[in-house]
Amino acid sequence: MEPETGQELDDGCDKLITGNTQLTGIIGYPLTHSLSPQMHNAAFKALGMDWAYVPFPVKPSGLEEAVRGLRALNVRGVNVTIPHKESVLEYIGEVDETASLIGAVNTLKFEDETIMGYNTDASGCLRALEEVTSVDGSSVIILGAGGAARACAFQLAVRGASVTILNRTPERARALAEDIKGALDIRVKYGGYELIPACVEGADILIDTTPVGMYPHMDDEPLVKAELMHEGLVVYDLVYNPPETCLLREARAAGAVPVSGLRMLLYQGAEAFRIWSGREPPLDVMEKALLDALQGV
Ligand SMILES: NC(=O)c1ccc[n+]([C@@H]2O[C@H](COP(=O)([O-])OP(=O)(O)OC[C@H]3O[C@@H](n4cnc5c(N)ncnc54)[C@H](OP(=O)(O)O)[C@@H]3O)[C@@H](O)[C@H]2O)c1
């Protein structure tokens, strides 16, 4: 379904690059499966912008030099992905409020005087949810306690949700809950996956931030089956490849409301586009580029 390596992906950039072309891109390591080049290059093209988006594989040992170099080369901004989302904070000037709370950034903007950091994973997660439900006052179960869970949990706690974090390693769930309590003075419940049945029963929103069901393991057993879900429960799987995961199929079977991780990918990218260019992102074009890329078109 998806090409095996980034090299085989068409980056969607068939334009002539000149000295006037404004550069953006993504830094991470390894950078094998990023769909962001297709999404952003399609958006630049649709708006007739002389901009391009380039993947830059950057090893952890080269991060500081890379950030300085990107700035010196007049790059407008970059996305930041694993493993640099936290470590890059050391090399940037200012961080917006949400990113500062979370302690991680996924978007940098190079300005004349400074380098600004943002966390559009958090705003993207929220926007995708707010398309289908109201977050304020809702009861949210988050499965997983890694980087994506952290961005979602902080953002939802800030927006007035009652958050419970369940993880394979309960100690990591506890650590995240304590970080949120320390930063926001909001109590967050936590535990292991054995609490899934009891917690899901009373929940409004279930967010799976684990890689379970991700390509090429699409047939793995989902962490929550249909019999534990109820009608109206919002089931949000952050996995976007495939767009329709086994968890989302279970949600449909239960009459729950499925939300694909593709929505978060789209909205985090759209927000980064807006931050860099100040222009309204062409969402339809960006979504189509993502779907085409996943289908190998
Ligand atoms: N849609 C989007 O825009 C978007 C954005 C960011 C991330 N994501 C997706 O979110 C997922 C997680 O990313 P991440 O950066 O948070 O990764 P991460 O930091 O490695 O965290 C992964 C979490 O999943 C748990 N986990 C891993 N394998 C598991 C398994 N087989 N069964 C149960 N739990 C398991 C881990 O538990 P332990 O703590 O016990 O190891 C950990 O809590 C990935 O699939 C990523 O592609 C999507």
TrEMBL record:
Q: InterPro entries attached here?
A: Aminoacid_DH-like_N_sf (IPR046346), NAD(P)-bd_dom_sf (IPR036291), SDH_C (IPR041121), Shikimate_DH (IPR011342), Shikimate_DH-bd_N (IPR013708), Shikimate_DH_fam (IPR022893), Shikm_DH/Glu-tRNA_Rdtase (IPR006151)
Domain (SDH C-terminal): give its ranges: 261-291
Gene3D superfamilies in the record: Leucine Dehydrogenase, chain A, domain 1, NAD(P)-binding Rossmann-like Domain
Keywords attached to this Swiss-Prot or TrEMBL record, sorted alphabetically, are:
Amino-acid biosynthesis, Aromatic amino acid biosynthesis, NADP, Oxidoreductase
Family annotation (CDD domains): NAD_bind_Shikimate_DH
Q: Where does NADP(+) bind?
A: E97, G144, A145, G146, G147, A148, N167, R168, T169, P170, E171, R172, L238, G261
Q: Does the keyword Thylakoid apply?
A: no
Q: Which residue windows are coiled coil? A: none
GO BP terms: namely: amino acid biosynthetic process; aromatic amino acid family biosynthetic process; chorismate biosynthetic process; shikimate metabolic process
List the EC numbers from the record. 1.1.1.25
GO MF annotations for this entry?
NADP binding; shikimate 3-dehydrogenase (NADP+) activity
Q: Where does shikimate bind?
A: S34, L35, S36, T81, N106, D121, Y240, Q268
Q: Which reaction does it catalyse?
A: shikimate + NADP(+) = 3-dehydroshikimate + NADPH + H(+)
Function in brief? Involved in the biosynthesis of the chorismate, which leads to the biosynthesis of aromatic amino acids. Catalyzes the reversible NADPH linked reduction of 3-dehydroshikimate (DHSA) to yield shikimate (SA).
Q: Which family does it belong to?
A: Belongs to the shikimate dehydrogenase family.
- PANTHER family, A to Z: BIFUNCTIONAL 3-DEHYDROQUINATE DEHYDRATASE_SHIKIMATE DEHYDROGENASE, CHLOROPLASTIC (PTHR21089:SF1), SHIKIMATE DEHYDROGENASE (PTHR21089)
Q: What is this protein called?
A: Shikimate dehydrogenase (NADP(+))
> What organism does this protein naturally occur in?
Methanothermobacter marburgensis (strain ATCC BAA-927 / DSM 2133 / JCM 14651 / NBRC 100331 / OCM 82 / Marburg) (Methanobacterium thermoautotrophicum)
Gene name as annotated: aroE
